[in-house]
TrEMBL record:
<dbReference type="GO" id="GO:0008173">
    <property type="term" value="F:RNA methyltransferase activity"/>
</dbReference>
<dbReference type="Pfam" id="PF01189">
    <property type="entry name" value="Methyltr_RsmB-F"/>
</dbReference>
<dbReference type="InterPro" id="IPR035926">
    <property type="entry name" value="NusB-like_sf"/>
</dbReference>
<feature type="domain" description="SAM-dependent MTase RsmB/NOP-type">
    <location>
        <begin position="137"/>
        <end position="432"/>
    </location>
</feature>
<feature type="active site" description="Nucleophile">
    <location>
        <position position="362"/>
    </location>
</feature>
<dbReference type="GO" id="GO:0003723">
    <property type="term" value="F:RNA binding"/>
</dbReference>
<keyword id="KW-0808">Transferase</keyword>
<keyword id="KW-0694">RNA-binding</keyword>
<dbReference type="InterPro" id="IPR006027">
    <property type="entry name" value="NusB_RsmB_TIM44"/>
</dbReference>
<comment type="similarity">
    <text>Belongs to the class I-like SAM-binding methyltransferase superfamily. RsmB/NOP family.</text>
</comment>
<feature type="binding site">
    <location>
        <begin position="246"/>
        <end position="252"/>
    </location>
    <ligand>
        <name>S-adenosyl-L-methionine</name>
    </ligand>
</feature>
<dbReference type="InterPro" id="IPR029063">
    <property type="entry name" value="SAM-dependent_MTases_sf"/>
</dbReference>
<dbReference type="Pfam" id="PF01029">
    <property type="entry name" value="NusB"/>
</dbReference>
<dbReference type="GO" id="GO:0001510">
    <property type="term" value="P:RNA methylation"/>
</dbReference>
<feature type="binding site">
    <location>
        <position position="309"/>
    </location>
    <ligand>
        <name>S-adenosyl-L-methionine</name>
    </ligand>
</feature>
<dbReference type="GO" id="GO:0006355">
    <property type="term" value="P:regulation of DNA-templated transcription"/>
</dbReference>
<dbReference type="InterPro" id="IPR023267">
    <property type="entry name" value="RCMT"/>
</dbReference>
Amino acid sequence: MAYKPDPAGLKLRLIAAQRLKAVLGGEHFVPLSSFDLPDGRDRALANRLITMALRRHGQIDAMISELLEKGLPPRAGTFEAVLRLSLVQLVFMPELGAHSALFLAVEAIKRDNKARHLSGLMNAVLRKAQSNSARYGLMDDDLLLPETVRDRWTRAYGAETVTQFAHALVDGAPLDLTLRDDDPELVEALGADHLLADSARIESRDRPVEALPGYDTGRFWVQDAASAIPARLFGLPAGSTILDLCAAPGGKTAQLLKAGYAVTALDNDGARLERLNTNMARLGYTPYVVEADAATFAPGTPFQGILLDAPCSATGTFRRHPEVLRHRSAHDIAGRVRLQQALLTNAFRCLEIGGTLIYCTCSLEPEEGEAQVDWALHALPGLELAPIAPAELVGLEQAVTADGLVRTHPGMNPGGGKPGMDGFFVARFRRTR
């Protein structure tokens, strides 16, 4: 029998379905790489389908509820993932063609031993979805955010701001960079816009980061505009000793070295430290690197400054990682709050009297931000708040609260440009005794 090649686009669909299935099962979304799909166009399309399925998850839930009266079939392999990808194509990416959405979905199911008996159901469901695609494309934006998340954030930020969050979820995140030098020519060559301080933004690009001008020579590193704020707030003399806790992959480490500090970069994950070392080598920076537990690390000499970018729920990164909206429960957040308190306690121990401690999280949860400030001021005698002034964040004064804290969110417009930045919290302390 002559060999019959797979239909065009099927491999892409199969690989995308496996990755989406893993994320639906609780894994962190990692975009497909050239190892997964060597062809750049196929890879870009597959990643776009997956991310759209994650961004539109709530709306797709509503579609599935209507299309499958008995709900999703149990123990059905990749059925759900293939269905979600196909609904994305039918409703939100119609330019790809309805016929290919149906055909590839059925073919993908036939190649899954656990789902092949459902190929007829897949075909019927998608034909029904096709006839309703125009109506599905107008679904309420309130469905984009899980109800518990929307209610929680509405209490914290207000309904109008949360509507901006929903729009930011659909739009995704541009590429923000921190520049090694003041380099207007590089900004122009990158097709970027200047944002704040040494941050620049590329709204859209047609190539991977590694192929951008200046990457190989270490003239920039990828870092969201919000993430770049904390390291700028020390205001210490050049040469001051700074401990960067939970440092990998090293964006803030690079900022601190650029500012002229003597930096110790600490992380408890050897693989992540390898990535930090690779990044530092590309940028031409040489921190002192330590693999240790940030909750128990005991230096011989206390540091003049400590930057604690604490592990957190990461809900502020939902534009790039929409899965966090459904993977983070109240129990998860509570566990991270306890870890943050342990790290804050040890950071205080590692700080010299008169030293500066900056605490930050990429979280939109008040429990991981403002509430931790209240806890630290009561639990750690000798730690006082060192308020941040609006003048320290030129172009983003709106992010500085009346208490001298920094709270950013995706509805803010850094530098007065288009809205969009990670949700971030920053507090600055000083040790007085």
